[in-house]
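Troubleshooting: if your tokenizer reports a length mismatch, compare your output against this known-good record of 229 residues.
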Amino acid sequence: MSWENFDEAAARYEPWYATPRGRRADRAECALLDWLMAWFPRAHRVLELGCGTGHFTRWLASRGCAAIGLDRSPAMLREARTLARDTPLVLADARQLPMRDGAFDVSTLITTLEFLEQPAQALEESVRVAERGVVLVVLNRCSVGALSRRWGPQSRGSLLAGARDLSRARLRDALVKASGERLVGMHWRSTLLPRPLDRALVPWPVGDVLGVAVELATARTGFGDGLER
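Known-good structure output:
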């Protein structure tokens, strides 16, 4: 999906989080992010690729991170600046990041990868700029929500209709390729299940969103075994 679609939706993007459905998704995804970031307890420098209006960039900052948001959409970043003027924001393409290798402890992509035109390239870049790991939250192709995005109410005119959602197997393969010899391990959880389990975090890929914390080797730690845990 082109970034121009997000430019057009920028003004209504953040208000969605105040709707009943938006609040439900936000609570579940923040709980998931809390679990994923816990794999990097000393992470301070964090980059969010595809930050949009900075919703999760602000959440990361509230957790004590020096968080920077990056997006290709100028309109999204304008909205982000009106919501938090002190949040560092960068206008750039996730496929060609203007940052040095290992510039951040952790890079994050939160419901971003499935909207990018060249997701593999963005994954490689997210690994390159991360010293310790990558955190991803993606829309799960094998879920009730995925059926709605393809054939149900969400398939008609919404941004979600343009998502190329991912299965766990497909995302794992992409991460193995992008991480190469730096891959130490992957830690998975899924959430946003049907009520009343909508905020539960489960190890099985059954919720509307999947989350994975990807541990990367640094020069100090050496290469890992790439095992899932």
